[in-house]
Amino acid sequence: MERRYASHPREVKQFDTARLREEFHIPKLFIPNHLELVLTHEDRLIIGGAFPIAEEIKLDMDLKELGVSFFLERREIGIINVGGKGVVVVEGQEHELDHKECLFVGMGNREVIFKSLDTESPAKFYLNSATAHQSYPTQKATLAEAESADLGSIENSNDRTIYRFIHQNGIQSSQLVMGMTLLKTGNMWNTMPVHVHPRRMEAYMYFDLPEDAVAIHLMGEPSETRHIVMRNEQAVISPSWSIHSGVGTSNYTFIWGMAGDNKIYSDMDPVNMKELL
Ligand SMILES: O=C[C@H](O)[C@@H](O)CC(=O)C(=O)O
Ligand SMILES: [Zn+2]
Questions:
Q1: pTM, full prediction
Q2: Which residue, by CA, sits nearest to atom 5 of ligand 1?
Q3: 162 in ligand 1 pocket by Cβ < 6 Å?
């Protein structure tokens, strides 16, 4: 497990490209037959990827780092499959997860195992785990089952559909909020006009990007913005004080996950466009 510390906006102003990437950018989530985990001290979210091909992968780590006897003893997890068909086995019970489907697993489950159904088209499980104080039922949702909203327009190059899987009015959790945004062909911008939500941090994972395409992710205080160049299947941490928006050289999909004081998706403070610097 890799550790990332929380940051102060006044300090982050001084960062050069390398330091910004060291602190906020997660370059590789999917390593064959491996569980990659990054714990950020921004609301203690764990961001990860499980990429089982020939072998199955158990949700596990050096538990001394969490001070518990099993991963979900004091945590919950949201899982979204961005690869081929897979299975998540929770306490012996199989949950099949197709491409772009989500599974929530609550606190208290001792065993979680990730498997692919076809080694030719392996599953890729993207994970967000937050600390929890109460156990909520394991629940799956497809895109069709998620609450969705069409936002933006082709004129603003941001015609997209937002699918909310885990939130106040969806799958129940202690604090995890998670969903996915699909941009339509020819649309490049997400989350513009920008917002902040000092009550919650957020992590983005960009995918469905062609191999040589990039997304320019924007972060920082509204009056002190920076960019991080993102490639396919990379994640980026957004502290609660930071904007989080991006523009691609091609359209893409991204998963957003949040942890903090509330689970209300719409609890955002819009930034006045005149204040962006
Ligand atoms: O707090 C919510 C998140 O930033 C995203 O859901 C925004 C987003 O998907 C979009 O506007 O495209
Ligand atoms: Zn946000």
A1: 0.98
A2: 256
A3: yes
Q: Output the six-digit token pair for 224.
A: 């002190």
The pLDDT value given to residue 111: 98
Half-sphere exposure of 57 toward its Cβ, with a 13 Å CA cutoff? Answer: 27
| Predicted-complex ipTM score | 0.99
Mean pLDDT rounded to a whole number for the chain: 98
Neighbour-count burial of 132, counting CB atoms closer than 10 A to its CB (0-12 exposed, 13-18 middle, 19+ buried): buried
DSSP for 222-272, written as a single string: TTEEEEEEE-TTEEEEE-TTS--EEEESS--EEEEEEEES---TT--EEPP
The dihedral sign for the CA sequence 51, 3, 20, 216: positive
Question: Among 164, 190, 240, which residue has the most ligand 1 atoms within 8 Å of its CB, making it the best to mutate?
Answer: 190
- Please work out whether the CB of residue 139 comes within 6 Å of at least one atom of ligand 1: no
Task: Give residue limits of the domains in the chain.
Answer: 2-275
Structure tokens that stand for 118 in this block: 């076809």
141 in helix, strand or coil?
Answer: strand
Q: How far is the CA of 107 from the centre of ligand 1 (A)?
A: 26
CATH superfamily of 2-275: Jelly Rolls (2.60.120.10)
Give residue 88 CA to ligand 1 midpoint distance, Å: 26
Query: Residue 112: which H helix or E strand, with range?
Result: strand 112-116
Measured over the CA atoms of residue 122, residue 248, residue 104 and residue 42, the dihedral's sign is positive
